[in-house]
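hey so i finaly got around to running the thing on HSNSD domain-containing protein from Brugia timori. pasting the sequence first so u can double check i didnt mess up the copy paste, my clipboard has been acting weird all day
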Amino acid sequence: MLTLPTRRIIFWLKLAIIITCISFIFLFTHLAEITEKPHYRYPAQHIPPYHCPLSNKTGTTYKHHGFVRNKTNFLTDGKVLVFVETLYSKLGKQIINILDALKIPRKVETLTKNLPLLTTAKRGRFSIIIVENYYKYLNLLSWNRQLLDKYCREYNVGIISFIGNRPNSYINAKVKGSQLTIHTQQRAVNLRFNERSRVNFISKPGAVLQAPEPDKNDWILFDIISGYEGIVLADDIFGEERASVILDDGSEDGIEKILFGHNFTHWINKLAFLDSLRYMRESLMYDDLERFVQIDIDDIFVGTSGTRMTKVDADALLQSQFRLRRDITNFTYSLGFSGYYFRNGDSLEDKGDERLIGTILRLHL
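ok and heres what it spat out for the 3d tokens, dont ask me to read them lol
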């Protein structure tokens, strides 16, 4: 039989074990809250809607006379020949990526001693020729240059090319074999699409970009003279209007060309490039301006603690969808779900995850 002191010891041991178990349970369930580090969170922002500086009225259509390609007599296959400096050049890859995104068939070559086969027995193999470096085209071996130009004239094929700054180049210079004057090492301001250009389709002419201007003196600007039409206009530092993208209508050599004075680091050139492709061969591009918009928020639950969405953010996301639906019928965000990372943040972020799941039905209503 246990004595009184022994019973008391056992009682206190049991009590200690119970208290320890309760403490462990409490710590386990509240450990995340105790060890959480406070994070500074940026509040959800409501960005005011953008208003285009131009009305949606269709601009004036200008009739052009003189040399205009016959775009209904397709003597060539719907394929683009791309001459790149190297297979790894940055601009060359960007050109190829755009063509692939548009699902335009293409063949990529480098300008070497031998040109690829340009014709079959009855047809031309390429409907557009793109040259990454226009200087390489100008300095082709005479036989290759004659062969390429003859193909362009006989099959009514245009050339799209890019002119870049070269070390120790003249500030003002004539383009070899033409009357076109270029101005190198320029800073372009007030970029805009020419209202009178026949190339415009996607681009909306007339609006001067309300955005930061190019901040480097690495643009080439063209003088606009007879036989040449500015597609993208810009002002130099002296306020003189010039072109950063220009159309050679072929009046000098019978070959239409579109020349870019800068690469794709400025997005306006990408729009001009798309319009240039369509102008050179309409059948390669879409013929309407209807677009479908989808905003895909991929892996919504993936992210380190402190950067994930909270309940307030989830509510703001839902409200922004309702605002967008005022202008876009049935607009709905597309969310990517990752169950592995669900409720893997701090307490505020876990509530945000739960709120997102709770609003999924409303996001898709």
